[in-house]
Structure prediction request, 695 residues.
Amino acid sequence: MSNNDKKYENGLRESATFDRKTIDDIQRAADTGIYDIRGFGAKRKVPHFDDLLFLGASMSRYPLEGYREKCNTKVTLGTRFAKNPIELDIPVTIAGMSFGALSANAKEALGRGASIAGTSTTTGDGGMTPEERGQSKNLVYQYLPSRYGMNPDDLRKADAIEIVLGQGAKPGGGGMLLGQKVTERVAGMRTLPIGVDQRSACRHPDWTGPDDLAIKILELREITDWKVPIYIKVGATRTYYDVKLAVKAGADVIVVDGMQGGTAATQEVFIEHVGIPTLAAIPQAVQALKEMGMHRKVQLIVSGGIRNGADIAKCMALGADAVAIGTAALVALGCNDPKWEEEYNKIGSAAGFYDDYQDGKDPAGISTQDPELSKRMDPVAGGRRLANFLSVLTMEAQTLARACGKSDLRNLEPEDLVALTIEASAMARVPLAGTSWIPGQTGF
Amino acid sequence: MQRSGSQKQQNYMFGNGTVTRGLTMKTIDLAVQSVTDLNRELHAQADKLNEKDWFVENPKGQHNIAVGLDEEISVDIKGPTGYYAAGMNKKATVTIHGNAGQGVAENMMSGKVHVTGNASQCAGATAHGGLLVIDGDAGARCGISMKGIDIVVKGSIGHMSCFMGQAGNLVVCGDAGETLGDSLYEVHIYVKGSVDSLGADCIEKEMRQEHIDELQGLLDAAGVDDEPSLFKRYGSARQLYNFQVDNASAY
Prediction:
């Protein structure tokens, strides 16, 4: 019996409003005088894909043979304007994570894993590294407000450009990289003094609205001679309107990142209190695309809290063309591995709880710039682990799609889904299980 | 599309005087060809250089003129440009004979961009290198997030200029608007006239000989006959480089 259980037995009662975490937060704030900054994504429970279930085929639907019949996973991104759209073997991409936030070895591992699996990986705030470019068959180059390391040579080396307006962990906020990770190499790439607490801009410096963005997109197309797809990434908030504006501005692909999406360093209050769940964002995005006649013409990538093949299949069923994973990819590389338990304990954390990416002391050698810690991240072995994980994700999603009688992951549809809770039903716009009721859409 | 007037001798009126250019040069008329045609031809010079001098007629404020250049060529644009003229320039010398729209020479890496008129907001934004000279005034956010470019403005600049500027030099022969140099890193800012207000962590700094020399070099490069000692220098107080409790009100 734990000490707290004993306290409960002794008649003590914890406040639901001022629970232990809240009391700790208040005392930490009083001790330090500055807000808590951490990595990872939202930890609070929000309606998510676990609140949805598939209706497998039976009498009224015809399933596909689980192990034999083909279920296509290939997807082509950027078919609207780009001369060279990206063709992926699987609809699971690797989300943007910077060199700086991650070690060079971790970035290389992401590139290797993605290339083995036939998918793309993405740079982050801070430019493109040779390690990543060299090991990534398909590399998406992020174009961020900070423009750290942005240069036309790397732009032309990219297979796609992702204009980042925001991320799910902090829509409306800019990047952050604390001084302990701003090493000589990181500072050099970003043109910053070594060791500063780097605060990236939250607004793009040379355009201010969707009409300007349309011109900016044309500039990037001109510089790259209209070859590569241009994505627009938004944090999920007013998703319906943002997607419409992104289409109008000329995006080839739209990336919508829900509030569970990860971050390398952000204020805790921001991570937990801004944005909407991924589940709620997808139907808004799809509605916007359909109303403009652009669903499947402008591809939709969804990210934020995607962990397994079921999550992917559910995203696809709600209308996404592909998904992106970030936190799950880091976990696949070895983040939060129990084998480092003792070392996590030394820095005041534990395997399964570690979120101090901002500190740069990651025992697994992933979210760090420490050369000794980085050595623990073997890019070849890490790449293999990520490829394995991506393979499992794909097979899981295919299993569910076949059970619903679909020969292509993108043939999954909202009609294949029901919700376990009223909240998830309202957000995902699929019926509550056992009923035909969709709150806000149909009568009970 | 037909290219007009290529390989011919030309005389043109520029600003207050006549510039006679008895050169063979390639001329692209944007009343006839598209900006995409122009950029494609200019980009081709990076693969195979066969024309050093280019002339652009009838720009009429179109956007994205001469962006992504990557060769030591000279491009003269006769008239006003829209957004992002000479964006991400490398090596080339681009002259805009007129006013420039938003984000002229944004993210320039090297080379030179010269605006004979005024420039709209965000001139030289995020640029890593090269020289941007603006004969007239520049609007708001001039040199925002600049990363190594040298900018010389012969007139005045608007508010929020050099916001989050990281590296390079910003020289203003006229006045600067409100909130100059907010959240500045290591840019050297020189202003001859008045400054409406300084942004967070931006302070006036001592003008030492090394700065006089640096400024003289910049003025010479821009063709400005002015006295460096009449300028004041502004830079980062470096108080916001790391989070500190006592600076909370500035964050």
Summary: Chain A has two domains: 3-34, 39-428. The first strand of chain A starts at residue 37 and ends at 40. Residues 3-34 of chain A form one domain. The two ends of chain A are 46 Å apart (CA to CA).
